[in-house]
Amino acid sequence: MPIEPIMRDMKMESHQKSVKKYQDYKVFLNDYFRLKKELNNQWSLGAWASYMGLQNTSTLSRVLNGERIIGPKLFEKLVRYFEMNEEEIEHFKNLIKRSKIERIINSDL
What ranges do the domains of the chain cover? Predict the structure, then answer.
């Protein structure tokens, strides 16, 4: 199944560039999911995972819940899915790095 661009049926042209306004990638992804669900009540984690070529919803669900940090493969899939430009990619990457650092700082070393 092809990757669905964020803009298709979203009716929010400014949403894609708004990733740069976020300070937490989990908030960005959860906001996207909620908005998509509001616009299409049949939208689900399963549909999203399928569009991104994920085998199940577990990875996506754990990322949205803050139980897992985005790894390189999922990062690439999300960048393609959201059709991010270079500036957005860099910001998204920095949000993930920040989350990894915060996780280390807050963990019991």
Answer: 17-106
Whether the CA torsion 14, 18, 88, 38 is positive or negative: it is negative
pLDDT band at 108 (very low <50, low <70, confident <90, very high): low
- Tokens describing residue 1: 């199944």
- Termini Cα distance of the chain: 42
Tell me the two tokens of residue 81.
């899915």
Contact 33, 45 (CB under 8 A): yes
The predicted-structure confidence for 39-63, as pLDDT tens digits, reads as follows 999 999 999 999 999 999 999 999 9
Q: Which fold has domain 17-106?
A: 434 Repressor (Amino-terminal Domain) (1.10.260)
Of the candidates 86, 96, 100, 105, which has an alpha carbon nearest to the alpha carbon of residue 22? 96
